[in-house]
């Protein structure tokens, strides 16, 4: 057991959903301009119970159900933010945010720029994303690349309960709109929560130090990467795990420091690889760390297919074995390995 | 004929557009709308004349290559001016690309309303200074911004209404329906003013809508609806003022016509006849109000000349400001993308600066 997780087991354990709930509650209590709204976030407390109890505690003016219309939710949030409020809205599932895409990309992301800084939109859009929960179609998309491709948005995703609290508080405080991606399969994973600590909104974090190779992961894959690192010990590899946290803006500094140290890197994500977020990470690492690399930077991603049905999702989602294979492919010195492709 | 409405606000619009002035300027006796005060009518006239002159000036600047494009609102002055003057100082306006005259009427510097079309930057004015949202190019998206804005005002206990302008074509977009539904449920003080000018670029209303009128669309959302004569500035003013003061949502369809093409880049002869245009020229909103004002002794030669002179001054000032070559600084590209410019953008800005050095 690592130092971090040993510490965690001594502190109060909280689920990621619980940490998010606490962050929302604390933000609502701290700032009367914060509002929470969306589909089923009131009496039900959200389909994942992230907003549980908030309507009862803060009243219907602050936490409320909206009509079932995603573009409407984001579009009205924009108007409210223009009028001095700080909306935190919930999209029920990743693929159900797509009706709001126009409001997000053309208005939420751009209004600061279009108005030369006169309009500031402190809006947070919470999106439960990714697979691994046996969900049927349209419930398991990893849509980060759509958002990270859009200048003006911040895109963040926590990997642990502790970080879920911190990132959400920072997101609500942000003067810029934030797409807050919640790895839904980690909602029930428990960990320690220390509301006082702060690591910086834009910073990546080294979750586990190592010498031989850097695993670059985020959101749902942070836990998988940590598991892989433990398994790799048996193979004699000392794996460093970097949790990006902020997908956009990207923390080149922390990532490159790690890759320069290890000389090898693998980017892991659930979303399809082609044109995906990992391609950006690989490009940035290659551009900045080329002379320190002993091998090409590899990606381990979901296949380039629409998200599969629940009974096949285990094949699609990157797991420990696939990541270990990628690490194995990086372990040569002078010997040239023929193919790195999937 | 205008139908008398029940005293409480009804969901059902009248079958015929409500009006206060007939096409020849004679007043309608039994209109349910309240005739604006004389000084308001005189001001409505002045603003329509100024707006029309601004519009022709902007069209001319397009021909001179000073503007990339200009969507004229000639013929729609009663809507542009009547609706805006009906707003109270604290109310907000959420306009579209066609509503430059509305912005000018609201007090935005006329040249600054053209910044977007001139290409210097996306927006020239400060939304908070005049309480005017950015002119919206994607259709109907501003309807939701207006609903959210008005709802926030309500939550904050402020007596602020939001007026959102949209076209007939924009009523087909999903956002219009989501906005009307939100407005029906939340009941914020928001006014949807649909300027039904007959066409969405080339597509006529008959291919856009099957309801008895666009105003009828309010019924299904529980939003009180009004159909007005959009070439009757007194009627538009009265309807919008009543809606703003109601404290709740209203859908107003103003029946009007765009005399020019969709933009200077459009060829309107491909989809409409000159007879149709002529029939609408005969219902000109400025002529109509002038006839009424003259009959009432509220407009004489001297006043007309003074307003015309003011319009020429406005046009000259717009010309002077637009006849200057705009050379925005490339540094602006990287500003205001985020509240604090992140490192990768600072790097890109530095690279561009070096490239240009
Ligand atoms: C979402 C979207 N689709 C298409 C367009 C291209 N477009 C610009 S104006 C227009 C017609 C709009 O007609 P209408 O709403 O009646 O307004 P009008 O131009 O007549 O004032 C179209 C299709 C657009 N701006 N936004």
Automatic annotation (TrEMBL), chain A:
Signal peptide: none
Gene3D superfamilies, alphabetized: 3.40.50.920, 3.40.50.970
Domain Transketolase-like pyrimidine-binding: 14-189
GO MF annotation list: magnesium ion binding; oxidoreductase activity
Keyword list, A-Z: Oxidoreductase, Pyruvate, Thiamine pyrophosphate
Highest taxon of source: Bacteria
Pfam family for this entry, one: Transket_pyr
CDD domains linked to this entry: TPP_PYR_E1-PDHc-beta_like
InterPro entries for this protein: THDP-binding, Transketo_C/PFOR_II, Transketolase-like_Pyr-bd, Transketolase_C
Requisite cofactors: thiamine diphosphate
Protein name: Pyruvate dehydrogenase E1 component beta subunit
Organism whose genome encodes this protein: Saccharothrix texasensis
Lineage: Bacteria, Bacillati, Actinomycetota, Actinomycetes, Pseudonocardiales
UniProtKB/TrEMBL annotation, chain B:
This protein's record includes keyword Chloroplast: no
InterPro entries for this protein: Alpha-ketoacid_DH_E1_comp, DH_E1, THDP-binding
Top EC class of this enzyme: oxidoreductase
Start and end residues of each stretch annotated as Disordered: 1-34
Molecular function as annotated in GO: branched-chain 2-oxo acid dehydrogenase activity; magnesium ion binding
Enzyme Commission designation: 1.2.4.4
Catalytic activity: N(6)-[(R)-lipoyl]-L-lysyl-[protein] + 3-methyl-2-oxobutanoate + H(+) = N(6)-[(R)-S(8)-2-methylpropanoyldihydrolipoyl]-L-lysyl-[protein] + CO2
Pfam families named in the record: E1_dh
Cofactor: thiamine diphosphate
Keyword set, alphabetical order: Oxidoreductase, Pyruvate, Thiamine pyrophosphate
Occurrences of domain Dehydrogenase E1 component (ranges): 46-313
Gene3D superfamilies linked to this entry: 3.40.50.970
GO BP terms: branched-chain amino acid catabolic process
Function statement: The branched-chain alpha-keto dehydrogenase complex catalyzes the overall conversion of alpha-keto acids to acyl-CoA and CO(2). It contains multiple copies of three enzymatic components: branched-chain alpha-keto acid decarboxylase (E1), lipoamide acyltransferase (E2) and lipoamide dehydrogenase (E3).
Protein family: Belongs to the BCKDHA family.
Name of protein: 2-oxoisovalerate dehydrogenase subunit alpha
Lineage of the organism: Bacteria, Bacillati, Actinomycetota, Actinomycetes, Pseudonocardiales
């Amino acid at each position: 057991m690592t130092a971090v997780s040993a510490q965690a087991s001594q502190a109060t354990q909280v689920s990621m959903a619980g940490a998010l709930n606490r962050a929302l509650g604390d933000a609502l209590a701290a700032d009367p301009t914060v509002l929470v709204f969306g589909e089923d976030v009131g009496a039900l407390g959200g389909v994942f119970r992230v907003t549980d109890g908030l309507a009862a505690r803060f009243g219907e003016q602050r936490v409320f159900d909206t009509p079932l219309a995603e573009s409407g939710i984001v579009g009205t949030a924009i108007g409210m933010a223009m009028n001095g409020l700080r909306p935190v809205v919930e999209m029920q599932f990743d693929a159900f945010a797509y009706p709001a895409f126009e409001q997000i990309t053309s208005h939420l992301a751009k209004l600061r720029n279009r108005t030369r800084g006169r309009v500031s939109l402190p809006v947070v859009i919470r999106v439960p994303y990714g697979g691994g929960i046996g969900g049927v179609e349209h419930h398991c998309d990893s849509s980060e690349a759509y958002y990270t491709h859009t200048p003006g948005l911040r895109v963040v995703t926590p990997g642990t309960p502790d970080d879920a609290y911190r990132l959400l508080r920072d997101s609500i405080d942000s003067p810029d709109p934030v797409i807050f991606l919640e790895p839904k399969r980690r909602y029930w994973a428990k960990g320690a929560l220390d509301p006082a600590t702060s690591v910086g909104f834009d910073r990546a974090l080294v979750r586990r130090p190592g010498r031989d190779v850097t695993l670059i992961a985020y959101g749902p894959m942070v836990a998988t990467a940590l598991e892989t690192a433990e398994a790799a010990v048996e193979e004699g590899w000392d794996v460093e795990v970097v949790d990006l946290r902020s997908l956009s803006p990207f923390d080149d500094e922390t990532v490159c420091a790690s890759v320069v140290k290890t000389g090898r890197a693998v980017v892991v994500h659930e979303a399809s690889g082609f044109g995906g977020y990992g391609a950006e990470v690989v490009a940035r690492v290659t551009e900045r760390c080329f002379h320190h690399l002993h091998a090409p930077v590899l990606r381990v991603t979901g296949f380039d297919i629409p998200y599969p049905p629940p009974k096949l999702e285990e094949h699609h989602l990157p797991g420990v074995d696939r990541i270990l294979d990628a690490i194995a492919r990086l372990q040569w010195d002078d010997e040239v390995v023929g193919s790195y492709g999937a | 004929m205008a139908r008398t409405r029940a005293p409480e606000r009804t969901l059902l619009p009248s079958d015929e557009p409500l009006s206060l002035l007939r096409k020849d300027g004679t007043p309608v006796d039994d209109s349910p709308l309240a005739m604006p005060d004389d000084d308001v009518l005189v001001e409505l006239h002045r603003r329509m004349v100024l707006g029309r002159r601004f519009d022709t000036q902007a069209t001319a600047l397009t021909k001179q290559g000073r503007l990339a494009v200009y969507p004229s609102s000639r013929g729609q002055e009663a809507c542009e001016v009547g609706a805006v003057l009906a707003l109270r100082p604290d109310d907000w306006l959420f306009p579209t690309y066609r509503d430059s005259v509305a912005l000018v009427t609201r007090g935005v510097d006329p040249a600054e309303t053209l910044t977007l079309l001139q290409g210097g930057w996306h927006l020239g004015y400060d939304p908070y200074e005049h309480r005017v949202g950015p002119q919206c190019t994607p259709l109907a998206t501003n309807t939701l911004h207006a609903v959210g804005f008005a709802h926030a005002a309500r939550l904050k206990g402020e007596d602020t209404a939001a007026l959102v302008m949209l076209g007939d074509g924009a009523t087909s977009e999903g956002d219009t329906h989501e906005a009307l539904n939100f407005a029906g449920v939340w009941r914020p003080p928001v006014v949807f003013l649909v300027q039904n000018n007959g066409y969405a670029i080339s597509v006529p209303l008959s291919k856009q809508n099957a309801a008895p009128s666009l105003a009828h669309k309010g019924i299904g959302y529980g939003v009180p609806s009004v159909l007005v004569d959009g070439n009757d500035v007194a009627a538009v003013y009265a309807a919008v003022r009543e809606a703003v003061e109601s404290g709740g949502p209203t859908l107003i369809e103003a029946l009007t016509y765009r005399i020019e093409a969709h933009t200077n880049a459009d060829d309107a002869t491909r989809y409409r006849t000159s007879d149709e245009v002529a029939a609408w020229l005969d219902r000109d909103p400025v002529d109509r109000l002038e006839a009424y004002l003259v009959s009432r002794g509220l407009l004489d030669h001297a006043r007309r000349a003074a307003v015309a002179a003011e319009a020429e001054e406005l046009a000259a000032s717009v010309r002077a400001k637009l006849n200057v070559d705009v050379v925005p600084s490339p540094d602006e590209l990287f500003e205001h993308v985020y509240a604090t410019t992140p490192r990768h953008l600072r790097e890109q800005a530095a690279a561009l600066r070096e490239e240009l050095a």
